[in-house]
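User: I want to check something. If I give you two sequences, will you return the structure for each one separately, not as a complex?

Assistant: Yes, each is folded on its own. Here is the first sequence with its structure:
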Amino acid sequence: MSIASFIDSHGAQRISLPPASGPLQSLYKQLMDEPEPGHPQAREFLLECLQEVAELPCELPQSPYELADWSTRQQQRVTQDYADYLNGRHAGEGRRYFPRKADALHFLRAVAPTKLVDGAWLYGVLPHWRDYRVYPLVRTYLDELGDGVASQNHALLYRRLLASEGCEDILELDDGLYRQGAIQLALGLLAEEFLPEVIGYNLGHEQLPLDMLISAYELKELDIDTYYFQLHMNIDSGSGGHAAKAVQSVLTNLPRTGDAQAFYQRVMRGYMLNRLDMGSTAVIDSFDLHQQVLQMLEQKRTVASQMHSDYFRIAGRTVNQWLCSSDSVESFLQALQHNDWIRRDTDPACSRFWRLIQGPGAAMFGMFSPYERQLLHDWIAGSWQPEVRAKPFRPRRRYRAVLSLAGAAQPGETGRELIKELQNLDAYRREFRLIALQAPGQHWSNTGLAATRAFAALIQ
């Protein structure tokens, strides 16, 4: 089986953007679907964001020539903080971020709008690969795209991660969670005008963060594939990693004539754009399991309020009667507990309600997604902990081994079709076409991967 058919048949590419329900989500979707350079809405949005960060204090050194030392100190601090975290865990401390698997899956869904456009801020530098000052940024973008190898393409890896955990459904996210992704997309489309800001944003994004190290450690404990995070940690750290290249890009592009300080001020503002989101720790801290269960059941209620029979009655009322109004979900859950349908703080298998959802012959099997089942499982379990770490629900869908063994560098049918198309174009249009296929909304597709491999070979 080819890598293309494997991915298609296992759903790694079936994740689609939901219908826009807020201004940031609408802009995000538009910039993904219409990646036109100089996009007017993207420019207006980016200028607003830059104005906002202009009022914030910036931790970067005042001189760009101090950036290398600053970056080294940052990495040393993160390394030490992570060592302290590990010492605490080894001494018996619990997980800092994800006490339950539901917390972890909520995190993966919440940061998806940003992760699915990984590297997008550098898309606009591709046409300038011949400029030695910009070439390292081009190489960073191609690294994010895995040089066209599916098993190394960051956006595709994250799509696969979501699919493997049954979290393809990312529809009900707060609009604010799309802000950072929209910033990345806007920078990628406006690199011609905002190159100093792109360089500054890249500088901030490529510093190795403590929260990524801790997240990867705890996700692995919860039997969640951490390859996406491990790949980032490998390429962002070390003297030859993306962090060091990001510092060098500031110095290489610093004007030798004219106002170098004004250029650096713009770099600093671009750096601060990384601060305009909730941040990973804020996303994690915002998770309330009980409220998530109520929100999920309320969404189900609007569809299921007339679908139940009148055979079962709970506290004298049918299920349809319980679900007839928007304020009934909390009372319904309390009634289920009072009437022994749900036994909190025990093995969920002991709860009749859970057995209707999960298990052989479950009457409501398939009505809840894996993520929704995890919410209910962990809410019912509460303080209960299994003697051996349980692996409930879905069969594991591991892709990494298959992806790594697949011949991603081979042309394949899609690659051959692209080569045939390119042969009919002159050199200028051929390069333009390859760049267009590496846009954030396309590079992870089969054609985009083939285009990335061709472009990477072209610029060697």
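And separately, the second sequence with its own structure:
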Amino acid sequence: MSATITVVGLGSGDPDRLTLGSLKRLQEAGERYVRTKDHPVVAWLEQTGVEFTSFDEVYEAKDDFPSVYEEIVTRLLARAEAGGDGTHLVYAVPGHPQVAEATVKLLRERCPERGIPLDILGGESFLDEAFVRLGFDPIEGFLLLDASEVRGEAIDPRRHTLIGQVYDQLTASEVKLGLMELLPDDYQVVVGHALGVEGQERIERVPLFELDRLDGYGNLSLVYVPASEDESLRIRSFQRLHEIVSILRSPGGCPWDREQTHESIRKNLIEETYEVLETIDDDDPDHMREELGDLLLQIMLHSQMEEETGAFTVYDVIQELNEKLIYRHPHVFGNLNAEDAEAALNNWEAMKAEEKKRKGLEPERQSAISGVPRDLPALMKAYKLQKKAAKAGFDWEDIDGVWTKLEEEIRELKEAVTQKQDPEAQELELGDVLFSVVNAARYIGADPEQALSRTIRKFTQRFHYVEERLREQGKTPVDSTLAEMDVLWNEAKSKERE
């Protein structure tokens, strides 16, 4: 039978806080190991004759903390299995074994699998000293984070936040950048070093931007972000956006917002989408930021309407999207490979087909051109339909077939117009021409919607130039000849090439 591993917490750093039970276990142990000797209590214990074998050399041999912890646990398990029943093997860790101690978490997972008894003795954690020395009650709302986990979305300014494992200035810099995603640069934070350890404790209050300019970071350092009820601090959070939209739709909210339905704001969703596209075309990041917000508002409003009926919330929308992204990217989140964009797209399509199977929608029962949104603009819809049809094998062998078809459709359009066929017939022939042009775009790898948009922008710029030059002459397009305007049009074209 394997030896029992007893994990002992050394407390926050003051030898007087080491429990009597822990001290007895340490004194009676046949073998003693400590994760690191860089702890005030270890030095005191060794002065009293309680010697340790440390794993400090593992930190030097490995490139990252997960590898260090894995190696420590591997060695402890091997020693326990070799020690046999009756061996007293003690493993000491800073603070409390169950607070921010990765090796103990691994031991709790691995010991049962290997049939190794595990006993854990608590100890005073750095949290106990933090509550006392920093003067806050965790029941008011409290969040504990590892320095590596600090991101804007993880922070709620209404809760007290303690950040542990701030070992050095580089880690402090990463913490600072994470907090700055949500908090202003001058937000007051507190840095605590060796809390409760006589002669070593140091507490400093600094603006956030100075966090990584302080000296003295080490194994006993932490950062405290005091709670605040200032609502302006939450203005960058998604939760606050959800609250605002909910309030606008509430009985005490905005009368206009309360009256809206999916149908009444349907057009807004389309308009806001096109306004976003305009900022993309104009390469205008500042305006794009604003328009993306307006588009997001439409999504929030539609989601809020469904939340009010109990159908779903915006968080359900986010969940479904996250699940879809993970599932359809097995080359990122799974074990498949994708060497290029085309392979990634194939993975995406394969996972979409698998999703349909799971939902009872057998792919073979679906049309090859299914899945194209009904209300897409016609040019874009034609492009997507042709791509799907081509993927199913319904396509020209080469671009020569496209040119032949395009010439045929133009000829039929000319005939319809020349023969003065009814307007509907002429319109249908025009549609055939446009559909054939889309085929040509697909063959040369161009997006027809984008191509036409670029031409429209070019036309608009040139026409504005013509108007401006005429205005300088005291004229307008209405009282100018086509020849005059054509000269200015060519002038505009020349300037584009300069």
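Because they were folded independently, the notes below concern the second chain alone. DSSP finds 19 helices and ten strands in the chain. The first strand starts at residue 4 and ends at 9.
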